[in-house]
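Schema walk-through. Below, the input block comes first and the output block second. Nothing else is stored per chain. Lengths vary across the set, and this one has 369 residues.
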Amino acid sequence: MKAFKNTLLLLAIGFILNACVSGKGALKQGDYYDAVLESVKRLRENPGNKKATQVLTQAYPLAIDYIDTGIQNGIKADDPKKWRNAVDGYNKINFINDQIKTSLGAMKVITNPQTRFKELADAKTKAADEAYNEGINEMMKNTRGDYKQAYFDFKDANDFNQGYKESIEMMNQAEFKATLRVAYEEINNSRFNYGTLQPVISSVQRLFLSFKPTSQKDTVPPQQYLRIIFNGYQQSGRPNITTQSENVSRQIVTGQQKGPDGKMMDITQMVAAQVTYFHKTISANSNANVTITDAGNNSVLQNLSIEGPVNWTSDWATYQGDGRALSGNAANYVQRKETWPNDQDLFNQSIRNLQNNLGQQLKSFYSQY
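--- output ---
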């Protein structure tokens, strides 16, 4: 028990030392903001932490000055993101204030933490205008990548100032222009009813990427065609069975008798058996072809064969000889009987594997968009 308590004490000391080192390390590296947050956190857990108190005393004024100076330098240098950076900076100062006020230990060190609420409100108004104008500039470049950037610029403008100018309308327009539209067609070229692969396609859909069936009319023509042809399903007609044998033996106690010294002693006997292990495999597979075509010039962008392999296995064993020689795996396997899979379960698993592989391939391809 004493050793256990000593271990817990060492762990606690190590944790405290590591926390102090991380705070002091951040301070030494000039990460004043992180140093402040780390020391405030430690003082929340232990209000009397001397090293955290020392770090906070040094780091707090440095952090405030560093953030304020960075904001002013950006404004003077006419940084294209000066007001958005100012918002980030003022938010950091206000966040430090919130963290200190929820830490009794930190409040004893920094009794009157600074805030920038008025400055933040003013910076948000200017940041909204800054982001909105940058979005307009991006829209004028007339490329899909720039439309995507414009979407986030207009979103920022609206976040800084709800309903700022036409930020919502422009955000929707940018999303519309940035979205890659794919018309897809699913063909069952087999006698098997596998359901549909539509959920897989829906899982790939995201912002700036839209999939719609070719039969469904869209407001604008698609840029790509996706065709998936399910070719069929096959299951091995005969199972593949492999065998392996081993001889096992062990000494067992069959009774007791008196020894020469009059004490009872065990009567032992060596027993043996031959164990034959069986491993049966039944394989199945489903297959589909995937073709992605550029709608503008009809060039093939991707042509893949997707499969859904399944390998069902069963293991059991038989033995000849004395069953008392069996133990461990041998004893376990001889209790099993030869089994057969449910054909429908094999088919369902194959389709699930096909869907997973199809989803991975589509996500990989469309990650570039």
